[in-house]
Amino acid sequence: MKKDKNMKNIKFKNICLVVLAISLLGLACETEDHYYDGPDMISFTSGVYDEFPVLPSGDNTYNLEVGSTVISNDNRTINLRISDESTAISGTHYSTITSLQVVIPAGSCIGTLEINALFDGFTDTAKTINFELVGDNLLEDSTFILSMEKSCPYTLSDFVGTYDVVDFRFHRNGNTVREFQYEVTVEEVDGSADQLLINNLGGYGGELIIDVELLQANKLPVTFETQVSGYDAELFNETGEPFGDVTFMDWGGCEIDVCGESIIMTFGTAGSPGMYSISSPSAILTKK
To answer: Is the pTM of this model over 0.70?
Structure first.
């Protein structure tokens, strides 16, 4: 029967704690056989895998523990190596580890190696450091994978503020791609826990309400219902009349980039003479 990794972790730490408690009572020699009478074995104390969220601020230190089943009166140095299967890059995703050695202090059964993750080095993909214990007397869990991924905790109010917009769209006047740059403000919608209001999207002066899917993720899907919002005074070449009232339509793919503090909006707009533009590939709203 395959053993559960969490249970093995608990058993290992129990052995360590019991031996340590007995040693502190001065009874290790007399009573050790009642608890653990095996050889000195080395293992990672957290099983074979762990996940670590890398935050935009604060302490991003992960403490990798290596443990022994026996307490010694001397310091013990345990050697590690990093496997080529690792995807994290030293100096990019974590600070360079100057020594791949863990010291288990005298009178203890656990030693620690500090790993400092670097938030700015991460994009949208988790990266791993694959550690291996080197030497003899190793328990079967002699490898350990640390998976690191950037994580940006948020509340809906974090998205409130002023944004600069770069908006490329195919425009019916001249049938060319035109770049629009303007500013919008974003605010919460009264009485709603998952909606935001964007003022002046498209540069038309109107208001657009969007629905935000509040996931435990760095990218949040955004949708919105078709809405009439704002007025386009530009004259349509074919009629000489203003495009008029603007109707916004959701073309899919809208999202909030939590870590990047930006909102991606892909939308089509229509004025009174008919549909005349679509943001392509998207309007990018970047918080000031």
So the answer is: yes
Q: Six-digit token pair at 141?
A: 């869990």
pLDDT tens, 198-222?
999 988 899 999 999 999 999 999 9
DSSP code string of 191-209: T-SSEEEEESGGGSS-EEE
Task: Give per-residue pLDDT as tens, 138-149.
Answer: 987 799 999 999
> What CA–CA distance (Å, rounded) separates 52 from 204?
44
Domain count, the chain: 2
Query: At which of 150, 177, 206 does a domain end?
Result: 150
* 234: helix, strand or coil: strand
Alpha helices in 25-127 (DSSP H): 28-31
Give 3-49 as a DSSP string.
Answer: PPHHHHHHHHHHHHHHHHHHHHTT-HHHHGGGT--S---EEETTTTE
> Would you say the C-alpha torsion 135, 141, 143, 145 has a positive or negative sign?
negative
> Are 138 and 160 found together in one domain?
no
